């Protein structure tokens, strides 16, 4: 098992400095007098072109980001106990709500999980150690919510719009360029490790509760999963808490809805 503290240690200062999703991709504005009108027009043109990146292209870039994450983290082999448990508790979830899903475990001792806009869902072994099956399912349901509601789509589109070099990726003959690992690493940091808005998180929590009900899982597990995150939060360093709102408040809100 590998611990990914090193990666987080690199990411955290960047996130702290950025404060906002995608902020690190924003180049400091150059003084107006140093820019020719042509430069300004050119920059404007790129933004307009990037805005036309299709949903299919966005999904393709998410696919590349998923591949990059799988290169950086050890996937549990099919016969590994974590993979076996995850396959069992997500049986019948190859697709859900019109999405094709690819749910796998990382052998990383970290309380974390994420989803990409292409339907990739990864659950870290450290989270699986702390949570029972239905609690893991609720976390997965929440992540599927982010995919279905396209929360990441908007952030990736924004990242592509804000970075001149990346904006070219979406415009070349309407195709999809294979991004370099360094470019993908930057996108992962700015799109995946950034916080969703409070509204997006609330929507995903609601989605998770609906997901649990639709699948016949125990909805109370959503609240107890949040309780566990809240209990873990004291010492800090819980990856899922760095990207998500206060779990105690989320537990309270979910319990109200379950009643
Ligand atoms: Zn979330």
Describe the overall structure.
The protein has 259 residues and is mostly helical. It has one domain. It contains 13 helices and five strands. The protein has helices at 5-18, 37-50, 55-72, 81-89, 125-130, 133-148, 151-162, 164-169, 181-192, 198-215, 220-232, 239-243, 247-258; strands spanning 95-96, 99-100, 102-106, 113-115, 120-124. The strands form two sheets. The chain has a three-stranded mixed β-sheet, sandwiched between helices. The protein has a two-stranded antiparallel sheet with strand order 1-2. Helix 11 (220-232) runs antiparallel to helix 13 (247-258). The longest helix has 18 residues, at 55-72. The model is unreliable at 1-38 (pLDDT under 50). Bound molecules: zinc ion. Residues 142, 146, 196, 201, 204, 244 line the site of zinc ion (ZN).
Topology:
Blueprint: H1 5-18, H2 37-50, H3 55-72, H4 81-89, E1 95-96, E2 99-100, E3 102-106, E4 113-115, E5 120-124, H5 125-130, H6 133-148, H7 151-162, H8 164-169, H9 181-192, H10 198-215, H11 220-232, H12 239-243, H13 247-258
Parallel strand pairs: 3-5
Antiparallel strand pairs: 1-2, 4-5
Helix pairs in contact: 2-7, 3-9, 6-10, 6-11, 7-9, 11-13
Zinc ion (ZN) binds next to helix 6 and helix 10.
